[in-house]
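Researcher: I'm preparing a figure for a lab meeting and need a structural model of a single chain. I don't have an experimental structure, so a prediction will have to do for now. The sequence is pasted below. Please return the structure as tokens so I can convert it later.
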Amino acid sequence: MSTAAGSPAWSWEAGPVLTTGPLRCERIEPVDVAPPFDRDCLAGLGLSGVQFGSLQRRAPGCLNVDLRPLTDGVTETELGRLVRVDGSTYFVRLDVCQPLPFAGDCVDWAYSEHLIEHVPLLGAIAWLTEVRRILAPGGLLRLTTPDLRRYIESYLAGGGFFAGYRERLRARGTPAMPDRLAFMVNHIFYFWDHRWIYDADELRYVLGRAGFTPSAMRVCAFQQGARPDVAGLDDERRNDETIYVEVRA
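Model: Understood. Here is the structure written out token by token.
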């Protein structure tokens, strides 16, 4: 995020220039399958799960979902249209605040990294209710999101993980981040267009409202969980600020 002259195009006071345009890929191939996507359809493509909020981290073996479209320079993905991307992964553009175009019990697992905090609370409950509907009995949901407790404990401790977090963002090309403690707390709530921030208890609450068993939710470590293939989707760049939880349908 910089101007042509190399100076920052945004500041921490003003906020970032949030990009909502298409993400680039090499090739988009339409798949002749219409929603609602059912278990036979997904299994026929070799897909056993769904990754919500995939951005550019599209994974094989699952249907990757994001609101931002993809483009290969010729074609741009349409809402609800399933496509094959670069000959290796599958993608569908969806808004998780709308009913999901999937049949019930159609996937064995669902994964979402740093998505739920961008959705208003009632929208998050509605989305998770839909996720519960599309998971097969015993299917696994793994959620990751910024951990409110880690931020508050770091604030009270006078720093905690904040220094490493600021350095990580600086290394990714952002402007130098202020070291004020109150700034860091405001940052998690407001800066990246966040809508609701969670700790373990708040995640249990929304999962319970969505039809999962709250007491069955388990807090996990980075890339550790009931299914190594699903936990392996965790992004190392975010593990210093993230809470990881799993629950079964």
